[in-house]
């Protein structure tokens, strides 16, 4: 861990100490409170989708993989509404556009329908991840009831997922083995974009493994009959096993640096979308709660904007046809990663894996779709007649802020683990 703390975070002009301070004192406490608000707490997700790559090897029998179901009465009324008032793809919002002169009012419903479908298609081209918030099998999950922590998911099934993501979906430097591939020093010959792809996946992997070490199953207290109460807490040994250089061919500190790198990417995306996010209503149907959420978001964005050295996305995909081809490839690889999440054989891990890849996909969309470029003044968001261009679906906003919350907590946990090492 000490090695990871030394110096700069590669590909960003920023050092680890300043980022630790900024995160642990400013961002982390704010996110902890924000993420308990109803808007961010309920996430709609399909955990039943078939794995498109191999037969199901689900290990849901493992008791800590179980996802606690949501009680119908706990879901805020505003989220349950069949046609969400803020869904841009309803006929209502399309008719608003008609009012604006977008389409001639005399157009038939069929034409409007086609137009809506085309818009959905058009927008989906910007997505770095497959979104299926509105399919019939999606259900709300209360994230506070289902914290990300140790589940016992490991072995071939977990390895197959990581292996597939690294070997089949990351850009590979040359034909090389899994172990050679996951060494950061093999990345030096790669261009920034390909290196970035590997580093965001590795950063996500590091974050997941920090969480399971920080909320480890330490023991089970036997109660009456068959009932036992799990005791969760930090497992320092597990953390060292996973990240110390001597246990990881020297790679552990690089994986931790990749986590910082991913944090900077998501932070930059949030800052880039901040004018847009400030205008969101965070509608749940409870006026007082929605107002509190709006204030808490403004406060978070205000602080996020103060961080001086952000990731510079303009350095990526800059150039002509080759760069555009690379961007398309990057997007396709990332979509594959998001679909591999349907193959995770533990529902709790799948839930957080899907949420975090969707959050990252949203960050990449904000950074690279071009729709959030050069619109950094509030007026552009209010008056621009193309304001529909800037809309994000609710699940994208929820996943983006929750995914960033996961990374923020990982960085906080790293400083807790460091206390045990010194
Ligand atoms: P793994 O973490 O499985 O890693 C496999 C190999 O990848 C390692 O041997 C190492 O060579 C390399 N590697 C490790 N870390 C990195 C990195 N950061 N960057 C690059 N290469 C690396 N378990 C839980 O208990 N709770 C969860 O919530 C949870 N969520 C998961 C979500 C997903 C999507 C997946 C795929 C797995 C999840 N797991 C979870 C399982 C967990 O990540 C590990 O796979 C499991 O604990 C087994 O760990 P391992 O020591 O065998 O190495």
TrEMBL record:
Entry's localization field: Endoplasmic reticulum membrane
Task: Name the residues that span the membrane.
Answer: none
Q: How does it assemble?
A: May function both as a monomer and a homodimer.
The UniProt entry's coiled-coil ranges are none
| Family to which this protein belongs | Belongs to the EROs family.
Species the sequence originates in: Nicrophorus vespilloides (Boreal carrion beetle)
Lineage from the top down? Eukaryota, Metazoa, Ecdysozoa, Arthropoda, Hexapoda
Q: What is this protein called?
A: Uncharacterized protein LOC108568285 isoform X1
